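Work Package 4 report. The design task specified in the project plan requires that, given a folded chain encoded as structure tokens, an amino acid be chosen for each position. We show below one input record used in the internal validation round.
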């Protein structure tokens, strides 16, 4: 175990992998408190991942050191992001993160610039957290689904009570301490018809300038639909492990057409008023795709470079595939670069491109969509082929609507690129 009185830890990995290969760029979401969370959001697929491990769901100090040694040794020089997620990562406690920051500074190579980020529900933040986050320049992603009457539909605590007011208190901490933050808003059955209201709330009432909209798709076999509707709990109230399987969805899931309408409503407001002052991930990603620069795995031609690390160091192919069959190894035993280059992970990433149905291959907005996330590809194409994205109707409507404006923006930006 790493102690406070221990000297600097030396990273002995060479600047390139054995054989002279350059390190592959990648990102990691690490779970310092596993699937533990103080909330009980009814659409949260990750709460069930506690079923994978019979322990306290807490990353140890020895585990922290093993993870950071591996991460920094496996990353190329330049900016390296250390990203924490959950569950609710702040449940691991502030001292853990203080140690993580100090250890990362000891471990980084001279050519590496470490940046820190944290995805949180915000309900446990206080001034001690605020002082720490601003001192170390954390970027904080705050989960919020809109104004109270929309947010509180599904984002509830263990007693089933509303959490919006608590999140606002957490946001006040971030603002008071000048912490950089963005809003991560899931789009689901409760807020899908309120795109403009949600966007204006974040922009005008909360002063948010960086927004992410994430569609909720709770995939489930038809035989398990009643259990899924009950919050992924069986008749005894025990959680059932969520897996990417089945072709049905819960009633909480966003409707495909409504997903497109939500994005269109936000896009039109953004184009009219907020270009250059508010940054919406989907719009930035679409512009990047138009320029051949892929910044988000969901809409890149291939995936496989966004890993998930559990509290005990186990590594999975993706945050959405923390389940049996997708475990790549453990950070205490195998280099992250080795896991990235493994046949299993290479096949996982390439399948995003090679498994597209003809409808996707010939789609005029494929350049912007690339079939979306593999986890949502359980629909059937117009030709009867499997593998169509469940949200295809929405993506097609949005990308087709936004294409003329995005193409114009790309022509303006292109001459300024290196």
């Amino acid at each position: 175990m790493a102690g406070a009185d221990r000297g600097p830890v030396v990273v002995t990995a060479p600047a390139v992998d054995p054989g002279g290969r350059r390190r592959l760029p990648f990102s990691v979401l690490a779970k310092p408190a596993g699937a533990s969370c103080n909330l009980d959001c009814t659409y949260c697929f990750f709460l069930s991942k506690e079923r994978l491990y019979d322990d306290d769901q807490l990353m140890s100090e020895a585990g922290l050191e093993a993870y950071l040694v591996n991460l920094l040794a496996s990353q190329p020089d330049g900016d390296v992001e250390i990203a924490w997620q959950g569950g609710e990562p702040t449940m691991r406690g502030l001292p853990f993160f203080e140690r993580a920051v100090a250890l990362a500074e000891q471990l980084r190579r001279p050519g590496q610039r470490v940046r820190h980020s944290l995805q949180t529900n915000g309900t446990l933040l206080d001034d001690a957290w605020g002082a720490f986050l601003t001192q170390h320049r954390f970027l904080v992603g705050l989960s919020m689904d809109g104004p109270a009457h929309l947010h509180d539909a599904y984002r509830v605590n263990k007693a089933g009570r509303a959490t919006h007011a608590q999140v606002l208190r957490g946001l006040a901490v971030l603002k008071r301490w000048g912490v950089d933050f963005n809003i991560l808003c899931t789009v689901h059955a409760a807020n899908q018809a309120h795109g403009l209201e949600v966007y204006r709330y974040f922009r005008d009432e909360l002063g948010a300038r960086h927004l992410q909209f994430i569609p909720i798709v709770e995939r489930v076999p038809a035989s398990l639909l009643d259990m899924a509707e009950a919050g992924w709990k069986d008749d005894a109230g025990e959680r059932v492990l969520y897996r990417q399987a089945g072709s049905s969805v819960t009633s909480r899931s966003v409707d495909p057409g409504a997903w497109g309408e939500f994005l269109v409503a936000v896009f039109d407001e953004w184009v009219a008023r907020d270009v250059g002052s508010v940054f919406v991930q989907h719009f930035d990603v679409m512009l990047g795709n138009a320029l051949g620069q892929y910044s988000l795995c969901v809409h890149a031609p291939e995936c496989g470079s966004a890993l998930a690390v559990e509290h005990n160091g186990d590594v999975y192919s993706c945050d959405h595939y923390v389940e049996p069959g997708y475990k790549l190894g453990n950070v205490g035993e195998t280099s992250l670069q080795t896991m990235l280059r493994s046949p299993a992970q290479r096949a996982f990433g390439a399948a995003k491109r090679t498994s597209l149905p003809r409808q996707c291959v010939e789609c005029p907005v494929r350049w912007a969509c690339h079939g979306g996330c593999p986890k949502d590809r359980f629909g059937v194409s117009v030709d009867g082929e499997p593998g169509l994205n469940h949200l295809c109707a929405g993506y097609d409507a949005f990308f087709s609507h936004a294409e003329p404006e995005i193409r114009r923006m790309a022509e303006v930006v292109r001459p300024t690129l290196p």
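Residues 218 and 410 are 34 Å apart (CA to CA). Validation will be extended to a larger panel in the next phase.
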